[in-house]
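If you are new to this repository, start here. Below is one unmodified record pulled from the training split, so you can see the exact layout before writing a loader.
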Amino acid sequence: MTFSNNIRLLRKRRRKTQDDVARALQIKRSTLSGYENEVARPGIQALIAFSEYFQVAVDTLIKVDLSELNERQLSQLENGYDVHLKGSNLRVLATTVDSDNKENIELVPERAKAGYQRGFADPEFIRELPVFKLPFLPDEKKYRTFQIRGDSMHPIPDGSWITGEFVMDWLSVKSGTPCIILTLNEGIVFKVIENKLEKQKKLTVHSLNPLYQAYDIPAEQIKEIWKFTHYISHELPEPEVPREDILQRISNLQQEINRIKGPGSTAGTDGG
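And here is the target side for that same chain:
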């Protein structure tokens, strides 16, 4: 039943008649009609032919009820991002939809970040997250919003809500793109990425705050990537301070600490 419904659905989404598909597969229209109406069962060669025609894996055609997928998932499938065909190129994402089958934007607050690291692929966990809508974002893409703490991405204020677009093909993300990255060891991080996945199997991530050093995240540590879309904050961002000014402030502070400690108190400094 799954196979017959799937090939009928895929055919109609392509706006093809039974004659069109039968001609392309070099079979009789009556044979195709039999498959779609469960009067006949396809053999291995027929399954392979349907798989190649629709660019959907045999396993998907016979095991996955495509009618239960939302529009974004169906579009991804039709564009070749089938987990059985592409392996890790397809990122399976737990998500929620509203009563109109349109995807929600789930909120991951600070207190839920540890739970998200464990339950990001668990539909039950995702279902418990608060949701909201942003009407100016396109329906065909998937978004999620994360609360980010710390000053590593200054001037974006601490506690801001960062909305990201789900990235399925990690190789498509250009270097210099701000992204929310879910990692196995560090949890959720918000950084500007230098994409070295194709040749070196890693991301080098950079903070906007120059006081923080760049570091590498190996591909095997990455679970999700969300491309920055916008952020929401109740605070105005502070003006960006040039790196030279920051270093001078640190030097002045160190000198003030040494002055307070008195003569001979420079131990532990670099002598500068």
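Two things worth knowing about this chain: Strands lie at 105-108, 131-132, 143-147, 161-166, 178-183, 187-196, 202-206, 215-218, 222-232. Confidence is low (pLDDT under 50) at residues 84-90, 265-272.
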